[in-house]
Amino acid sequence: MQQFHSYGHSIVLIGNFNPKIFHPAWFAAQNLIGEKDEEGAKVEIVHSDVAIFSLDWLKIEVLHDRFKALTLQQAYAEAVRDIVLGTFNILRHTPLAMMGINLDVHFRVNSEEVWHGAGHKLAPKEPWSGVLRAPGMLSLTMEDPRQDKYKGYTRVTVEPSRKVKPGLFFGVNDHYEVEDPSTISGSDEVIGMLNEAWFPSCKRAAEIVYTIFERITR
Question: Over the stretch 100-156, which tens digit does the pLDDT of each residue have?
């Protein structure tokens, strides 16, 4: 199986947040991170409008309407899930409306020929003949309705990698929505989705990425 060049796994929540409480000291006080993590945290800003800080394995970004927890290390993907679950089990009155479980990976490919061939397979050039002189794929996004009991969709984006050349970027956005936005009273519905859907979502995202990568580069 092809190994990726770089990796990112994130959970994004859409709701109503108070950014200034999301400080490493708060996470440590709630036993969500350890003392060493708190001491080593790099705080960019913690303000009433935005909070951004990072640990060796985690980055947290919070706006009034958006919370994001990200790791760039595959070994810590499940720890990111756990910190999100822990945070919003504590902050249960935070209204949450949507969630994205996101996988972003960059692969190196064996040659420029294979790289160009992947673009030709995903976006054939024949329809553009005589219209554009040298068309090339910059980005392709496909959307699939959810196949489980939740509202939402799965979007898959394939682009030339900006991190490795020749390379390909794959992004999978597994998007979930609450059943009735007018009845949101806290975090329970979305956190229940995360708790139940995490492993199936991760498995499906990996299957999508590796299957498409193999098909377009062989």
Answer: 999 999 999 999 999 999 999 999 999 999 999 999 999 999 999 998 999 999 999
Residue 1, helix vs strand vs coil: coil
> How many Cβ atoms sit within 10 Å of the Cβ of residue 136?
12
* Rounded Cα distance, 194 and 113, in Å: 40
CB-facing half-sphere around the CA of 54: CA atoms within 13 A: 7
* Strand locations in 22-166 (E): 42-46, 51-54, 59-62, 66-71, 96-108, 140-145, 151-160
The answer to whether 37 touches 24, Cβ cutoff 8 Å, is: yes
Q: How far are the Cα atoms of 90, 94, 95, 154, 188 from residue 183, in angstroms, in the given order? A: 20, 13, 10, 24, 12
Q: Is 7 helix (H, G, I), strand (E, B) or coil?
A: strand
What are the residue ranges of helices labelled H in 112-187? Answer: 112-122
- Listed as ranges, residues in the chain with pLDDT below 50 are none
Q: Where are the domains of the chain?
A: 6-10+96-217
Q: Reduced to 3 states, what is the DSSP secondary structure of residue 167?
A: strand
CA 109, 122, 117, 112 torsion-angle sign: negative
